[in-house]
What does this fold into?
Amino acid sequence: MNLNQALAAPPSLHAFLTRMPGQLRLIVAGGTSAAARVALMAFAGCFFGAWGRSGYVFSVAAATGLLWGLDRGFTWRGREGSRLRLVIARVSAESVGWLLFTALTELAASSPSTGQAGPRNLLAAALCALLVVSTHLLVCYWFVFGSTLTTASVRVLHGVLLLPAWPPFAETAQALYRGRGDIAVGIWTAVSLSMLLIAGLTLVRAQYGWQLPDRVDHVDLEDQESPRYTFSLIVPARQEPVLGRTLTQLLAGDYPSRLFELVVVVSDDDLDRETREVAQEFAGRYPNVRIVTPSGAQRSKPLSLEDARKHCHGELIGIVDAESLIARGLLGYVNTLAVHHPGTGIFQGGVQLMNVRGPRWRRPESAGTLRALVDWADSGTSWWRARNCLEYYIWFMSRLRYQAKARFIPLGGNTVFVRREVLDRLGGWDVSCLTEDCDLGVRASVAGVTTAVFYHPELTTQEETPESLRKLVVQRTRWMMGFIQVFRKGDWRRLPGWRQRVLAAEMLLMPFFQALAGLILPTSMLLTFFLSAPVGIVIIFWLPLLAMLMLTLTEEAAFREFADAYRIRATPLDSVRLIASAPVYQLVLSLAALRAVMRLFQGKLEWEKTAHVGAHHVVIPGPARPALRGHGGPVLTPGTPVAAVLPAPAGAFAGSEVLATSGIPVASGVAVASGVAAGLAKPIGEVRQPARQLREAQIPEQLTGQRRGDRVFAPPGVQLPEPFEGVL
Amino acid sequence: MTTSALPLLDRGTGTGSAPADSPRGRRPGGLTDSVVAVRDRISVWLLAHWQSIIILAVVLVVCGLVHGINQDGWPGRINDDEGTYTAQAYAMEYWGQIAHYTYWYDHPFGGWLLIAVYTTFTHAFERVPTAVAAARECMFVVHLVSCALLYLLARRLALRRVFSAAAVLLFSLAPLAVWYQRMAFLDNIAVMWVLAALVCAASPRRSAGAAIWAGVFMAFAFWSKETSLILLPAVYLLLRQHRDRRNWRFVRQNFLGFLTVICGLYVLYAVIKNELFEGAGHVSLIGATRWQLFERPASGSLLTADSGTRGMASLWLGIDPYLLCAGVVAAFPALFVRRLRMVAVLLLIQFAFMFRNGYMPYAYVTAMLPFAALCVAGMLDVLLPYYRPPAADTARGRSGNMAGSAFHDPPRDPVPAGETRSLPLRAPASALTPASAPTSASFATPLPVAAEPAVLATWIRLVAVASIVTAGLLTLPDHWAPKLHTALTADDSAPSREAARWYIENIPDGNIVVTDDNIWTDLELAGKKPEPIWFYKLDLDPAVREKLKNGWQDVDYFILGDLTPVTLNSLPMVAEGLRNSVVVKSFGAHGEIAIRKVIKPGCPATLTTTIPGC
It folds into this structure.
């Protein structure tokens, strides 16, 4: 034996088991299952005196739980079959076993000749176990995995197989009905406790960024490496009149222009003509701006990213949304991080919504009092804006950093930088996935890529909140559906550690929990009065509410931090409003979650199959843009700014062209959710623009000079607007 | 590249090696990795703390011996509250009820819940001779935990190890502490939780999690004894003193939030039972609170002669004048030492409350003891200059780093630098800035050569500490040793214990017996039927009177000690019953407790009678 063989790992038990021949596998699995049942029955009988049917049921349930995965992972490994049929076969066999056990024990009890009840019933259980296991295996062998049956006979067979399940089903239903009060209390206790657990975990993770003082200021701006890495920044633009401003801002950054290139993705159709012209103008002027114009009528963000990836030459590929404000020193800091952490594959920067207060509300002309009131509540209020900004702050400052540490991160779709070799190894973006950013994060986590998340007010990408509450709900619905879509896609199951898998499931199923959270408050209150539960149980009902109260207090603290970091003047009234609005906002989120869940059950996830053509990723210029873009889902995780409302100045829309084009998607028959389409036609009067752009956009000499005032700085549809007064 | 050269990132992110090639990826929490990491952390922790561990172990053994030996025998059953809490713990363990009679919100029930948890898990009621002894066992554990927490708190307040140990010994060996901490009082449990909250509040990591625990423990203190909330301002200020501006908002919200929420559960409990507001036919939280705060007969101020408070104070000073007086004396200068200020405030708050004309509980002094001990030891620590052998500087500096600063001390924000654990090891600086915590600036600059006045001041301080310690060593053993000897040997509980045993062995079932709470649980545990009756409830509980239609005439036996006239006046039925009874057997040298048989009207006043119904 040579040294290499000696050092090689011994063949693992797992490998040995899975290489077993089929018949032997059946025998081993069946034997294990039957033995486990008998042993558990004996355990229940000896320690709890449950020799009867309860003991039998316990043994079956416990054996199923303990040997979970035996069927799929071992017995039927490599065979394809319907899960439904597997379940039917199982239920049928178990019911037969239950009936047999009942009959045997009754028979033995009525005849006087037999001995003690314990051994007798154990024997009966052993018999049943053998019968059930062998029946199950045989049925599966022929019916589930070897079936060539036609549809009609399969239906008949389903019915026949389920026949023996009726008696135990009836008995169970009767027992449930008898104990319905206790069961209701028990279920709600379990719901409350799990909600408490989730609220507690959310609390801890929301505080992760502030848990230790040293964790707070984790970005040192003084620490700057000299520029070394080359960047490719992909700017997917679809009908972005503000593209010129974004490109200007990017070119005005302090990173040397020979070390980064901008890859602007604009489609070559007529819709994007205006945007394309802007981009072409930049490309003609700056050698490091490159335009990719893929053809195809229907575009989506992942498609654009994939198209652009082929043209990227930089070592780090970044994604920048066309309407966001990029910080000046961002590339320099990412370069520093990349130099210092050669092992890190992905760098996620912070994205921050900025307008805690809405624009001044104007009463819509020709609207009745009621409609005006609705309009005011929808878009004139700003309580939810503060909470929305805060969500972003907590998400990027704390939650994502925790996720990065826990090595399961749903990435954002903006201000994210990936090393090219990592991206290539991951196979790029999944164009069939609407939430390509979250999906990329999941796959990167599966591959063990480390992610660095950094957040500093001077480095964040700034965006704005949705323009109305209704659009917030639409946006949230989309995120949540995106999360569920990624959940269903199932990549997270391949995460290396069970903790990561649990974390992934918790995070991706958050819509359900959120919907539940909105139901908890009223239900618990009602149950307090109507359900005759012991005091201790009722207190348990209240615990999730108290945990949410703690979460609200944390949010208040975070809001003050946020206001400090961005020098927003926050009054005590703001804090009060923030706390008072928490339940309402929770209800809004629950509404969105319910919508998402309902659409899921209605089968509206159908579009996941056709999503790769980006049927909904149609962008309407001007006022309609945010909602529709949002629906197409270029950005579906909370980390990603969707529909950042930076409407072009009103002047840009003068003329009939825009108004005419805004009708295009509907006219062209593209499926647009009716709720979304309804919110489109509203014109936006306000000119809103974060002020930092003007404050920080100090254009280098080679850019400014003779060019100032040229169309570069006022491309069609873009005027550098006045600073937005409400923010700063 | 050193770590400090890296941009700060969260641990575990960004610093990993290159992405792994295997499709399953790198297992971040691989078994061997975590085992090695845990082993490393444990060994680092041991290296940093081995001295403290040894000192604490020795101190705890001493305290454990003093408090553990003869803990049932001394003090005797002089306070009925002990029995009440024991009985309530018994009711929790055996009946699943909060109290053995109607719970009327006298105190939150967390204290005896803890006792019940202890007795349930250790089977203490089944094990020990009397029920109260089981509860006292729990107190023994609580006291040891309190000692350990006090040591930890002292260390976190930058006391040197020897003074930390001295604080623990002062606290534990003072006769007052032996007296009160042995008894099954809720105050002991509350003191433990307050100390735990203080330890968390002074956490050198200044984490938001520590603030959560501080809030939770403070809420537990409330749940054990509601009066511990008067210490809340000082606990909050200690937390504030140790704050770090970068996460202070979260720390504050966590502390106050968790405290409020967990305390609020008590109100929620009352609301759910529909017992928050006063009403006919049920007890109420507000009613009980009003009675405790306003209607309970006040004990008077400390300044009033003949007041109950004055009497209580003289009782305490009679047991041990030294610790309390020294503590209060030391507390005033300690107010001017930043790191000791809050401890002094904790003591002085309680001291100040004695001047108010309110109800003075018997065990009020308990919560003053640890802080008095800490004030005394802390002031000695402040007085004693630091000694730095020139050669040992580097070695000590390194271990000092390990102990504290490298891990816990944020380099850029030295707000409460005086409290870091590394301070005592490396700081001759306090010799130059007497009676104040050195700032981190003084760490950084090399020490100047001490000038003449500084040397003089050092010597004066040395002499002062030496004389105080000498005086203490000369005085305390003389006064404490006899008392501790009594505590370790005297069996003052014997009468009560024997009375219970005698009754259980000699009086058959079927007799209605009225007894104090100490014996009540013993009779319950012995399975006496019908249920014994706690003598207070005979007069005060409508449910009990419902069962005994004829009042005292339905009672067969009394097992009671001597009741004060005030008590008897408030309990007319008990008084009448006692008047119509004869002593069957009395226990103790002076007849501390007696078993009496009630002579019903028309019956001869003899013990042995054959007339049915007598």
Summary: The longest strand of chain B covers residues 581-587. Confidence is low (pLDDT under 50) at residues 1-8, 11-30, 392-447 of chain B. Chain B touches chain A through 50 residues (CB under 8 Å).
